[in-house]
Amino acid sequence: MKFYEGFNPKNYRIHHFSKSNRKNKKYVAHIIYIGRLKDLPNPKKNYIIDIHFGDNRYEHYKDITPNPLYSHLDHLDIDRRRRYIKRFENNPSYNKIYSPLWFSTKFLW
To answer: Which pLDDT score is estimated for 42?
Structure first.
């Protein structure tokens, strides 16, 4: 992921979620910079990062975003949830905070 190089998640926080405008994506998470302005390479730039995640063609375990738009796709099958986590737990992005996989795992699975 391009923004992840040199990215420090401690300097960001989730601002809000909204429906994604990208094809086949469920949500976009808007995260904003909360660190010191003097640490930014360009303080005049708007430091809001949009991260699109989830595939709207598929079901998920349970949508726990603040405003669940896709709760009709909840399947609540614990075995499917375990298989999903098992499949992705060795992925390098699994533990990267604010990666699309992290958002999907935390808020949909």
So the answer is: 65
Structural domain boundaries in the chain:
2-107
Average pLDDT per consecutive 10 residues, the chain (109 residues; last block may be shorter): 65 93 96 77 72 96 95 96 95 91 96
d(CA 58, CA 24): 9
**Could you give the 3-state DSSP secondary structure of residue 18?**
strand
**What pLDDT score does 36 carry?**
74
Query: Using alpha carbons only, what angle is made at residue 89 by residues 84 and 95, rounded to the nearest 5 degrees?
Result: 120
Distance of alpha carbon 15 from alpha carbon 32, whole angstroms: 6
With vertex at residue 3, the alpha carbon angle to CA 58 and CA 39, rounded to the nearest 5 degrees, is: 140
Secondary structure of residue 106 in the 3-state scheme: helix
Taking the CA atoms of 76, 78, 79 and 85 in sequence, report the sign of the dihedral they define.
Answer: positive
How is 31-70 classified by DSSP, letter by letter? EEE-S-GGGSS-TTS--EEEEEEEETTS-BS---SSS-TT
pLDDT at 51: 94
